[in-house]
Amino acid sequence: MKNLTSLSLLLFLLFSCTGQEVPDEEFQIKTAVLAAPEHQRSEATVLGYDGEGEVVTLRAGTNDFVCLADDPNKEGFSVAAYHKTLEPYMARGRALKKEGLDFKQVFDKREEEVKAGILEIPDKATLYVTTGDPNKETGEVENLYTRYVIYIPYATEESTGMPLSPPAPGAPWIMDPGTHRAHIMINPPKN
Prior knowledge:
Strand content: 25-35%
Order of helices and strands: HHEEEEHHEEHEE
Number of strands: 8
């Protein structure tokens, strides 16, 4: 995060202290792309937040990746990147949350919509989720950690051979088996 402007650092500090200020676009873009594979970052589409907390496009991309900036209304730092075919599914989840639905209600509504053919989820797509610790002094994000989610809708332990919990540190396992949201989880060991 070198070369952040003084204004970016000031906005970052305000955001970190109040949890309500939205960092400027430059900071959101530089941190959102941390979730994407390095060779995909410069051409990825970046979604972030405006002053009202609405998700907006900060940068239109030219490759297959979408990166989502840290939500200023949530505690902690978390950014995501995913294949563009997941965007309608992700956008629907954001819309349902905005309507006030909780996690289970969002899950159930998207399950219903996928089964009805109203909402598509690709049969294979990867989501990268990166967390870390923003450093208020430098404006950099330290202790980056990325976990991987590989969506395989309606897959089960039987159809994949994947266990329902990690058999060893960092080993893949299947979560939400038999549902539209079935996915392989890979949580690499933390340093």
